[in-house]
């Protein structure tokens, strides 16, 4: 099992597997946790503790060493805890897990129209957007609070609000700072 203590919202799990003929599916489970509590007794391995993410089956098989295919599967889940345990259950399949990647999306720090927006973890649901309030750059003031929407895929969308330079200052051509006139 694997524990990642991250500030997660939308998390993607990518599993790369190699399969030969015969039984070929594995189950991927997850367990949300706010603390690293793993020991020989917790979290218990049962269907009530872990949630099934998916049963993964290879789409392509190989029959000899010269004919190898790597199957890649990507799954997403909304996580609203500080960390997560990932478990792979193999009940006698002819499957090898080559790698397991866990990642999440963030909207990067950005300066837009004289407003600064911090790096922000993306929204937890695939269709959700997260409104993020920004601050005007130094020597700029606001007439309407700057807001940007952070999408679940880690991109900024639909800037609203207004920052403008104070008297005696002018914006640079990129609108990222106010400089003295």
Provide an overview of this structure:
The protein is mostly beta strands and 181 residues long. It has 2 domains: 2-104, Jelly Rolls (Sandwich); 106-180, Immunoglobulin-like (Sandwich). 0% of the residues lie in helices and 55% in strands. The chain is built from no helices and 17 strands. The strands form 6 sheets. The protein has a 4-stranded antiparallel beta sheet with strand order 1-6-3-4, with no helix packed on it. The radius of gyration is 23 Å and the shape is elongated. It starts with a strand and ends with a strand. The model is unreliable at 1-14 (pLDDT under 50).
What is the fold's blueprint, element by element?
Blueprint: E1 2-5, E2 10-19, E3 25-33, E4 51-57, E5 71-78, E6 83-89, E7 95-104, E8 106-107, E9 110-112, E10 115-117, E11 120-121, E12 129-133, E13 135-136, E14 140-151, E15 156-165, E16 169-171, E17 178-180
Structural class: mainly beta
Total domain units: 2
Specify the biggest β-sheet: 4 strands, antiparallel
The second-level CATH architecture of the largest domain is Sandwich
- H/E element order: EEEEEEEEEEEEEEEEE
Mean pLDDT value: 79
CATH fold node name of the largest domain? Jelly Rolls
In what range is the share of β-strand residues?
over 45%
Gross morphology is elongated
Uncertain stretches = 1-14
The helix tally amounts to: 0
Strand element count: 17
- Say which CATH homologous superfamily of the largest domain is assigned: Galactose-binding domain-like
Broad CATH class of the largest domain: Mainly Beta
